[in-house]
Structures are given as C-alpha cells and as structure tokens.
Amino acid sequence: MLNATWLNTFTTLCETGHFTRAARRLNMTQPGVSQHLRKLEDQVGHELVTQQGKSFALTAAGEAVFQLGLSRRTEEKRLRETIETDDPDIGELRIACSGSFAMLLYPILMPWMNAAPALSIHLEAAPQPDILSGLLDGRFDLGVLGADPDHPRLEARQLGREELCLILPAGAPETIASFDELDARGFIAHPDGYALADDLLYRNFPGAYPGADRIHVRGYVNQIGQIPAPVARGIGYTLLPRSGVEAFDRKDRLSIVQLPERRWHELWLVTRRGRARPARLTRASEMVVTAARQVK
C-alpha cells in the first residue's frame, strides 16, 4: 500500500504544477514536499517527475500514480458523503422472516424499492434457527422471529401474534368432529407443516392424533405461495400462520376452521444490539410493523 500522506502531497504537486504552490496549499515547506516526493519514488521504485529548471514533467510512472491519487480522492469524497448523509433510499438491506410473513411484507417493500433505485433489499424466507444465526453473524440486518431470542447481542420488540390456522376449502363444515374426518381429506404438507401439525392437532385431538410422521399426506409443496392452492381447489387441508392465508390471492376459496384449542405464534422484530441504525433500517422496521398489523 502506498503511503497516503506522500500520495496526497504528490497529487497536490501535480495539480498545482509547482513545488512552492504545493507547499503553500499543504501548509508545508518546499523541502518537505521534495522529501515526500523522494520517499514516494523510493516506494514505487520509479522516478515520478523529471526536473525542467524550476518546473517539472511527469514520467509515465508519475502519470499513473497521479491518476491513482485522483481516484483515491474521489473514493474518499464518496465515503464522506455516505457517512455524512444517511439517506434511507440508498444502500443495502437484508431482511429474513418466515415464508408466510414474507408474502405479506414483500408487496409493502416493493413500492419503496421502485421509488429508490439506489436501494437494494434482500428478503429471505428462512427457518427460525437460520434467522437467529444470521442476525448474530451479521448476514441479516433485520429479522422477524416467533419468540423473543433473549440474547445479549440482539434487540427485540414484540409486534403481536398471529394465529395458527387449520385451512379447508370454502364451504367445508365449520367444525371437525374427529381427527379421522380431517385425516381422510389428506394433509397438504410443507417444510413447516409437520411442526405446525404437532403443535395444533395434538392439542385438539388428544389420543387420536398419531403424530406428524403418521398422518395421511395428500401432497407436498415447498413454495409458500402455493401451499393453499390445492386446498382452494378442494384437495386436502393444510396448516399455516394467519399471514400465509392473508397473503393468498384467492383466500375467498378457503375456509379457516376454528378448533377448540387455538394456538398463536408471536411476532418479534429483531436487530443487532449496539449498532448504529441507518435510516433505511428504521424505515424497513416501520414496514414490518405495517405488515404485522395485517395479521391477527
């Protein structure tokens, strides 16, 4: 790495074209400017100027080093502008949440992205353990978790909760008499579905529910937006958080069946503790809150 002070002196010398004027601008002595020049030439291993009386001309190496000096100044100027101007519409933002919540959040984020071409938002649907680890190691700036992480390096804010829903086709009976009646329809499974089944169905059909590994599976899909689609066409049943139902564009073809033992999953907005909060992170947090208000 070239010495930044010597490079700045040389760049100023090239701009002024005169040792005395360069010394005056830098608040240095003329011998000091000459000394920085010699040290930079030693570091580069080439002469940078050729003396022509009281003036000088740049060598080929000098031209290249001068361009580097100008480039460094431009980069430093941009850095200062970035640091001093915290524009919410500039920069990168990485958000992680469940797939069902992502379906609600992304339509809220898109108008902002459309209006801010210098903004880059990465929204990742991920399992809860991956969101937590990503927040801790810095891969995610913002996460939505189903519980308070209670971690010293994380800051969490509870947004509310959303109900875990049993979803059947529209027109289905309002009550389910037995697990066998439900199981006969067949489960539309998905990556989180088995854990949801153990959470909700076990509590509502004690003694009859055999465990997620033994239920009748009618189909499986890992695309969150497509999970309710077969149910909307009369095929099977599924389990989703409320956000997954609210984001489905044909939810009028679905029926949410209330079971006696209802279950809710909490929603927590999580960021790393102690870090400066850029304006874009504050705005994204507000949009997460807006999405959370759409679920019950």
TrEMBL record:
PANTHER family: HTH-TYPE TRANSCRIPTIONAL REGULATOR, TRANSCRIPTIONAL REGULATOR LYSR FAMILY
GO molecular function, one term: transcription cis-regulatory region binding
Organism: Roseovarius indicus
Family, similarity comment: Belongs to the LysR transcriptional regulatory family.
Residues covered by the HTH lysR-type domain: 2-59
UniProt-listed InterPro entries: LysR_HTH_N (IPR000847), LysR_subst-bd (IPR005119), WH-like_DNA-bd_sf (IPR036388), WH_DNA-bd_sf (IPR036390)
Protein name listed in UniProt: Cyn operon transcriptional activator
Coiled-coil segments on the chain, per record: none
Domain of life: Bacteria
Keyword terms, alphabetized: DNA-binding, Transcription, Transcription regulation
UniProt keyword Acyltransferase, yes or no: no
